[in-house]
Each structure stands twice: as structure tokens, then as C-alpha cells.
Amino acid sequence: MHATKKLWTWLAIICLASFTVLGWVGREIYLKAPPIAQVVDENGAVLYTPAEVQYGQSAWLSAGGQQLGTVWGHGSYLAPDWSADWLHREAVALQDLFARKNFNKDYAQLEAGGKAHVDALVKAELRTNTYNADTNEVKLSATRAEAVRIVAAHYNGLFGDEAQYAKLREQYAMTPNALPEAKDRAALTGFFFWSSWAAAADRPGETGLSYTSNWPHEPLIDNTPSAGAGIWSIASIILMIGAIAGMLFYHGMHKEEADPVPPKNDPLFSLKATPSMKATKKYFLVVVGLILAQVGMGIITAHYAVEGTSFFGFPLAEILPFTVSRTIHTQFAVLWIATAWLATGLYIAPAISGVEPKFQKLGTDVLFYALLFIVVGSTATGWLGVLGHKGTDFAFWLGNQGLEFTSMGRIWQILLFVGLLFWAFLLGRGLWPALKTPSESRGIIAMVFLAALCIGGFYATSLTWGKSTHYSMVEYWRWWLVHLWVEGFFEVFATAVIALLFTRLGLIRAASANSAIILETIVFLFGGILGTLHHLYFTGTPTSVIAIGAMFSALEVVPLSLIGIEAYRNYKRSQSAPWLGAYKWAILCFIAVGFWNTVGAGLLGFSINTPIALYYMQGLNMTAAHGHAALFGVYGMLGIGLMLFCLRGLVDRFAWSDKLLAGMFWSMNIGLAMMVFMSLVPAGIYQAVASITKGMWYARSPEVVHSTFMETAVWLRVPGDIVFAIGCAFLALFALRLIGKAKKEETVAEGVVLEN
Questions:
Q1: Domains in the chain: ranges and CATH
Q2: For the whole model, what pTM was predicted?
Q3: Confidence of residue 365 (pLDDT cuts 50, 70, 90)
């Protein structure tokens, strides 16, 4: 008990210290972010006002935002990174303008010496920071102002309906008139210019270091990785190796207590489901429906990488644009996983405490229909907003905010936040009898509840930005939600729930599990909280973000080094008693979580997490490879495993079908591996080579994205997609079988009543 108390104290200290540092970094980002200034030419003519730049950010987000290309590397991978694209186009425009001004020739016609002279002029023009803090103005030379107008005309036509950009739109999977209003397009160019200006202009007091730490790679102006990016990458790898060695040494010195002899019979066989537990069954059926919808949207979204606006010749983009299909694909991934976890919490609470609180079933039903309303409502309004070009106010409040994984409108976010708090309340009142009763497993139960409280409470970070919030701060708060949810509190909740289930089955000792769970939580959060900063290396943040993010992000890999050992132990536990066959596929899902944690989160995650690697690969398909393997492989398989565990106690055991679950399990995991390693990883490596050799603009250009190799890589997703879809079909058939058996039982029961 004394040791456990010390661990809780250390956990509190680490959380407090980590969030204090994270808050301090947020303050530094706010103070040192690229200024949003008035842009004028040397004669004082205004090109963009600060209000126009901020409105341009809203305009881009309302047109699809991070679902339509990226800014500073964050978003989707089919359209360009607009900051890199603008920077390259402006540099090329300046080359021709300076060549004509100095040599009366186009740049391509110059000799090597003339080109070198022009290149030096272009570099000086773009890297010199002309921002005046006293007047809040950025003054451009007449030549650069002309280049800005040339590039702005390109984007004005692209986001409008000019016919000359039709092919380019198709390559970008854009529909005509993404922004039908001229004022929106004009403001959009201001935002794109500002994001490019910040990527090239030297920070005040620095030479050769831009506001985005020289991201993106652009050889024309010597935008190359900073010394800090290389140094901290090396330091983080050394720290990771040392920490893994220390973890293995600790694990070897402290041999784990042997697992107890499992009971002769299933301890949960006689468990009677309470009304609120039975009410969670519909949650799991919705989970299956959301999985099917998410996979369907993923297939459509991937196909747009080849045809752009059509699906095997059918002009699908007219009713389901790429921005909508990708939004649903990414949003539903989070929603179905979260729904499975919410339902698991509501199911296990009465099962653990042995008490059904008054009105618990009513609360469970109300929460279900409220969440269903939010899912359907936010999806419908998001689709209508994009398709009908409803404008920035509609997009922010009710439609699609254009931010990856947090795209639903603000009203829906508020409702979801209330729903998550209500879920934490229901879970807490269900667990309260067990929490106040001294027992060996009380520490694990407390960890489950605290993790649930953090999952609900931290969704409040989605409410921290407004329409005119600086883009650097939007990204800061967005990653508070996405990273801390997924790689922080989701991880803790998952670990605690699995430990709790295994203790209830008599497979691990509650006393030893208590200390183990707190220790694992300390390890996860020690790296995970400040590891959030690895998403923010190049988003207009101070260089301290690179140092802190690199070191703590490396520590996130450390606990994954022992995941394989835990997965093997779970496999041995699943074979320790004949009755455990009833939970075979749920436990195998937990084992798959260990595999994908090592491969998806560990290997693929760390391959892009160091500053030097992410500098060249941010916004490329290696990120997608990591995202698919980690999000579905880890949290998706965990959600399915928890769902199967709960359904085992909710449905008649004769309605169970291990054959369907076997098909589901193997097809999903094999299909995911095929998708990642046959398509996404090769595509990511190919783009990384292009980024290193010619620049980020080139890696994201149609020449690369629609090259023979890349389009072949897209088609190589098809075998994996088919195998994965077969697994989803098995899961759907399994759910239909459960529904059919349940209806049959109800019919038989009604017949018996009538006969009597």
C-alpha cells in the first residue's frame, strides 16, 4: 500500500510538471508566433490587411481546410501544401522578374553566372524580414509585390471556376468554385502568402532561420534543416536507446509475479446483465455501422487519388466531394472507437460494483440517442456546408471547421463535450460503490474512472480557438486534443480496462496489477504529454519546441519496447483454462493491439518523429502509414476487442459465431498490413526521396502525386482494402446474426407467454 501511494504521488508530480511546461510552451508560441501584419508595397499600397489574412484562414478552412491540402504540413496529402506551393511559385516568379529587370531575358535563357546572380537576389528578397513591429507592417519591394500578384492570380483562378485550371483541380481532387465569392478568394491568397512569408523570412535577430524553422525544404532559397533539427534528432535517438536499455534492465531486475492459477470455471458465466448493461448493446451495433461507413469513405477517398473527382467514371464529387469523404473517414474513425469505449465503460461499471444506480438505464439511453443525434447532425451539416458553400460562419459554427480529426462545427463540439461529461458522470456513479469499498482492485478502478474523466474533460480543448485565432495557436490546442486523447488518456484507459477485465477473470493478481497500472501510466504520460510538441516543430513555434518535443517524443517509444512481452503473456493467459475459449477473439484483439503498438506506433511512428525526419516527411504518405497502423491497429482493434468482451455477456452464447470472428480478425489484420506495407510505406518513401532531392513543393506536386509509381501504389491498396473489407463484412454478419438470434428469442418468449 505504501509503494502504491508513492507511485500515485509520482504520477501527480509528473502530470503537474508536464502540463506546466506544456502551458509555458503555449505562452511562448503565443508571444513568438509569426506576426499577422499589414502587407504593403514600397509605395504604401496595401496588398493585404491583417483582417484579410485572418479571414483568409477562415475562408480556406470553410473550403475544406486540412481536408484540402495542408498548411505547414498538417492536413491531407492529395492537394499541395499551400505554404510550400506558394513559396515555390513566388520564387519562380521572382526569378523571371529579376531576370527581365537585370538582363532583359527570361530566367531559363540566362547563362550560369546570370542565374547565380538572380538566385542570390531571390534568396535575399524572400529571406529578408521587412516586418516593422512599430507600424505592424511588412513592406515588399515593387518586384516582390508584382510576384505576389502573379501567384495570387493563380490561386484566385484555381479556387474559382476558370477553365484553364480544370485539369489541375482534378489532380487536386477539387471541385470548381471551392470559394465562389471573390472576396473570399482574395483573402485566401493573403493567408497563403502569410503562411509562405513566415516559412521564408528570418526570425528577428536570427540569420538563416525562419519562423517555421526553415520548413518547408525549398532549395531555391536555401530553406534547409536547421542545426537544431539535426542535433536534437541525434540526442533524442541516444536518449531513446538509453531509456529502452534502462527499461529492460529494470524489467530484468524486478521479475514479475507469476500469474495466479485461473479458476476452474468462468467467473463471469453467472453474471446477470442489468438493464443499463443490456442498453449498451445498441451502442455496439452503431459501432459496427460506423466502421462500415468509415471504411466505405476510405475506399472512395483513396480512389480520388487516381481519378480526382470521379469514382470509376461516375462524377461522384458532385454530391460527395473529396473534402467531405475524407472528413467522414477521419471523423468516424475517432467516433466509432470512442463509442466502443464509452459503451464498455457503461457496461463494466455495474458489473464491477454489483450495483445498478437508479435511472442508470435511462441515462444510458439518453446518452445513446444524444450521441447518435450529434453524429448524424454534424455529418449532415458538414456535408451541406461544403456542398452548398454556406460560408465561414456556417462552417465554423455548424458545418465543417476544416480541421483534421476535429472538424465538426462548434455547436456540435459543445454538445459532444456535454455528452462526454455526462458519460463520465454515469460511469462514476456506476463505479462509486466499488470505489468507496476497500479492495485489492480499487486502484485499477480509480484509474479507469480518472482516465474517463480526462477523456471527457480534455475535449474542452476543442473549444479553445475561435474563427480569428492565430493558426499557430489553433494547431497548439488541436494537438492538445488529438495527441493527448489518443497517445495519452486513451492509452491509460485502455491499459486500465484490460487489467481490470483480466483481474475479474482471475488471470492476473489485483494487488500486483494495481502497482503495474500506475507505473505504466507514469511511463506513458512522462513521454506522452510533452511528446505532443513533436506535432508542432514547424508550425511557427520557437526552437525550444523542437528540443522538448524531440526528447520527450523519443520517450514515447520506450514503453512500446515491452509491449511484445505483454502480448505474449496475454496469449499464454488465453490458453491457461478451457473456458477462456469463450473470450478467445477478444483476447486475440488485445494481442493484436500489442503488435500494432510496436509496429504502427513504435517503428512507423518513430520513423517520422525526429525533427530531421519530420522535416522532410511531414505531410507525406509515411504519416498516413503511421496513422493507419496506429489508429486502427492499436485503438481500433482495442475497441473491437472490448466490444466482443462486453457482447459475450450480453448475448446468448449459442448465438456466438467463432468462425465469423476468425474471418473478421485475420482479414482485418492481414488487410491492414497489406494496405500499409504494400501501398502507403512505398508511396511515403518515394515522396520522401522527392522531398529531400527537390523540395517539399515537388513531393506534393502533381508530377509526383500522379506519377506512374504513386498511382500504382494507390492501386496496390486495392488487394489490402479488399481483404480488410472482407473482415468488416464478417463483423457485420456477426452483428446481424446476434440481432437475428435476439429477435428469434423475443418471438419465442412472446409465444410462450401467449400459450400460458
A1: 38-224 (no CATH), 266-361+370-415+422-437 (no CATH), 577-741 (1.20.210.10)
A2: 0.94
A3: very high
